[in-house]
Structures are given as C-alpha cells and as structure tokens.
Amino acid sequence: MQYNILGKTNLKISVVGFGGIPIQRLNKEEAVKVVNYALEKGINFIDSARAYTVSESYIGQAIKNKRSQVVLASKGPRTDYQGFKKNIYESLAAFNTDYIDLYQVHNIKDKGTIDKIFGEGGAYSAFVEEKAKGTVKHFGLTCHKREVLQYAIDNFGNQIETIMFPYNIVETQGEELFANAKQKNIGVVVMKPLAGGNLTNINLAMRFCVTNPFVSVVIPGMASFEEIDGDINIATQPLTDKEKAECALTVEQLGNSFCRRCGYCAPCTVGIDIPTCFTFQNYLKNYSLSEWAYDRYNAMKVTAEKCIKCGECIKRCPYELDIIKKLEGVAKDFDNFNKSK
Ligand code: SF4
Ligand code: SF4
Questions:
Q1: Domain 3-249: what homologous superfamily?
Q2: In the chain, where the domains are located
Q3: 274 lines ligand 2 (CB under 6 A)
Q4: Dihedral sign, CA of 152, 154, 159, 163?
Q5: What is the pLDDT of residues 14-33, one digit of tens each?
Q6: What is the pTM for the complete model shown?
C-alpha cells in the first residue's frame, strides 16, 4: 500500500481509503468484519457521514480497540455554528469515540453556502471551537460542483485542509481544481472513482485516480472482502498508451450524462428508487444479464413508468440530469424487452 500526506493536516494516509456508504446494507457483524479486513490490508483512512444511517456506528464498533490506527473522517450537512456543532457531537456518539480526525461539511451546493460556512455564526467557527477542545482535528469540504470548491479555495484556502470531489475516467473536471488545491497544500480526497459502478475495469479505474499526483486518497465504497481486494490490488504505475485508449473508449461509451448513484435525488414523490432503475437498465443493456435485470426491475415496489413528472428529484440532482426523460427511457427499454420475449 502506498501512503500519502493529506495536505496540511500532515496525516499519513493510505492512497486507497474506505468509503463508508455501502456498509449500510450489511448487518453489524458483517460490517465489522469488512472494516477490519480493510484495516488488515493496510487501509487506514475511513470516511463516513451523518447521512449514511448506521455507517458511523458500524465503523465505530469495528475500530473500538484500534482507534489510534485509523484516520477517521466524517461529515455533516449543517452549515451554521449550532447545527455543525450538533453534527460533530452526533458523529462522536455514533462512532463512540472522543475525537474525529477530519470533519467535513457535506455536499455544499453553492458559493453563498461557502460564505455562510466561513462567516460569523457559520460552521467553521464551530469547528475552531471544537478543535480547541480536541474533539475534531481537521476541517474539510465536500462538493460536486467544481466552481463552488474553486471559490472556496480562492477565498478561504488557508482555513480549508481538505476537499472531496468526484474524479474518475469519465469525470475529469476536477483536475485543475486539484492542482490549485495542491498549491495551497489542501489534501484531495477523491470520491466516485468507479463512477458509481459504471466502470467495470476496477484496476484501470483505480490506477487512473491514484496516479494523479494531486490526489491524496481515493475512497471507493466497500462492502465485501472481494471489493476490498479489487480496490487495493493496484499498481501505481502510470497508464500505458493502450490503457489510455481504453479510457477514451469508456468516455465515449458512457457519455457525460449518466447517473453516479449518489442518491441525492431521493426521496421521489411517488417512491421510485431512481438510481436503481438506472442500474437495472444498465444491466439490461450492457451486461448480458437481461432476464435477471428484467426480473429485478419488475420486483421493485414502484417502477419508472409511475413517475408523475413533478420535477422534485431534478432539483436535487447535483449533476442536473434530466431524470424524467431518463426514466422514460428506462420504462421504454423494459417494455421493449418484455415485448421481445
Ligand atoms: S419527477 Fe418523477 S422521479 Fe422525480 S420525484 Fe417526481 S415522480 Fe419521482
Ligand atoms: S439521478 Fe442524479 S442525484 Fe439521483 S442518484 Fe443519479 S446522479 Fe445522483
């Protein structure tokens, strides 16, 4: 395992970190085993969030006798002093620990929110107070919009210790941002290295990220031993010309308008599990698993054709996908498949 220094935090972290979203679907015993397996394999950076339901408490359970070996990161959604302080204490309680190494403001949507965070009565003032008490050590931001993080770096780069942003073969819009972060010694945490499951060549996808010299740590979601083995089984050699050509082909095939399965569009007004609809459509069309995908899709409580086109989900999608149109495509693809049977 390669270890990097996480920007001005000076924390030494494994280049592959543990993304804590998927363990939500495990039970506690399974999750504890998975987290411990990751630690045995040399992973020491674990990231979770208030929003990931049981994730923080599962992780806390797994690391309770090895807290000092882990660089623990989490995030809260509140941007005001009181709210962020509350988030910090909720996370401390869920992890059952007395300190968190990195605490981040989660999924910032616009520049105005950045001003609020660093202004009077903002989240940053709560962090400073808690840092003095030792409950949190370092401060970071997570966001899906490049221009928002660039604004944050330009205006508050001295206070920001890390940024988290999506980066992968098909989402390279963060490259300049990462270089700018590096200039201010801000650590770069990469989320979505596998493009929400859309990239199937894991080795290539991970190497693409870890060989970027501006990236500190890459955090794929992990929920099984196999996934951990796949994610850490990476060389750190740069991509060959042949591999670069493979990346270019992937970009062409996936296009720029695909769902990253972040789940921010939820809840749907009528209960459609939007990202899962797109996942099954993917299986139907791309993975020779049509029958399996068809059965799974039809077992869903609410399928794509039930969309009432209210548009609420679109407002929440950080990638501004035309979800209504895409769901029409899902319904049409499954209908056509049914007719062809
Ligand atoms: S537009 Fe359709 S998918 Fe989106 S929230 Fe409304 S009903 Fe749900
Ligand atoms: S539709 Fe948008 S918000 Fe919903 S999961 Fe996909 S990328 Fe995320």
A1: NADP-dependent oxidoreductase domain (3.20.20.100)
A2: 3-249, 274-340
A3: yes
A4: positive
A5: 999 999 988 877 899 999 99
A6: 0.79
Q: Tokens for 203? A: 């080795």
Which residue, among 80, 35, 78, has the nearest Cα to 54 in the 3D structure?
35
Record the tokens describing residue 94, joined without a space: 């869920």
| pLDDT tens for each residue of 264-308 | 898 999 999 998 898 788 778 764 568 878 988 999 999 999 999
Relative to the CA of 312, which ligand 1 atom is closest? 5
Pocket probe for ligand 2: among 143, 170, 260, the residue whose CB has the most ligand atoms within 8 Å is 260
Cα angle: 285, vertex 22, 321; to 5 degrees: 50
User: How many angstroms does the Cα of residue 156 sit away from the middle of ligand 2?
Assistant: 29
Residue nearest to atom 1 of ligand 2 (CA): 259
Q: Residue 83 Cα, ligand 1 centroid: separation in angstroms?
A: 29
